[in-house]
């Protein structure tokens, strides 16, 4: 993906299911099974998958008469793109202030803070 693109809430939900499938991919029915009730209509999910393919987040491969979908970007790579955008948009690219914000607003336990400090040392 050359141009950085972002997922809508509905697209993100599809990607979360794909990223968490045992084989990191599946058929439309496999993805549909990953939804909690109320599940979207099969045709709605098929539309989301087509959009995600067009946006470059998903690739499909024909297996028999069905399409098998796999992510073209990992969850961590997408997370990095989103975090970089949030840092730029809300903290003018100041990573230190971004990290301070995350620490202050995520109610870390003392144990988690110590582990973070040890990791940064």
Descriptive tags:
single chain, mainly alpha, three-stranded antiparallel β-sheet, 6 helices, 59% helix, 121 residues
Mean pLDDT: 91
Structural class: mainly alpha
Helical residues, percent = 55-70%
Q: Helical region count?
A: 6
Please tell me how large the radius of gyration is: 18 Å
Q: Whole-Å distance between the termini?
A: 34 Å
Helix and strand run: HEHHEEHHH
Q: Please tally the β strands and state the result.
A: 3
Sheet having the most strands:
3 strands, antiparallel
Q: Topology of this structure?
A:
Blueprint: H1 9-20, E1 26-27, H2 28-33, H3 42-55, E2 58-63, E3 66-71, H4 75-91, H5 95-105, H6 110-120
Antiparallel strand pairs: 1-3, 2-3
Description:
With 121 residues, the protein is mainly α. Helix content is 59%, strand content 12%. It contains 6 helices and 3 strands, in the order αβααββααα. A 3-stranded antiparallel beta sheet has the order 1-3-2. The radius of gyration is 18 Å and the shape is elongated. The model has no long low-confidence stretch (mean pLDDT 91).
Quick gist of this model?
The protein is mainly alpha-helical.
């Amino acid at each position: 993906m050359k141009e950085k693109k972002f997922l809508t809430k509905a697209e993100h939900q599809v990607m979360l299911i794909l990223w968490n499938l045992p084989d990191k991919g599946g058929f439309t029915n496999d993805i549909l099974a990953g939804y909690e009730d109320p599940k979207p209509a099969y045709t709605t999910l098929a539309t989301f998958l087509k959009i995600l393919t067009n946006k470059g987040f998903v690739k499909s491969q024909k297996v028999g008469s069905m399409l098998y979908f796999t992510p073209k970007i990992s969850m961590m790579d997408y997370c990095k793109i989103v975090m970089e955008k949030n840092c730029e948009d809300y903290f003018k690219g100041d990573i230190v202030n971004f990290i301070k914000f995350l620490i202050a607003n995520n109610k870390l336990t003392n144990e988690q803070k110590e582990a973070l400090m040890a990791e940064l040392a």
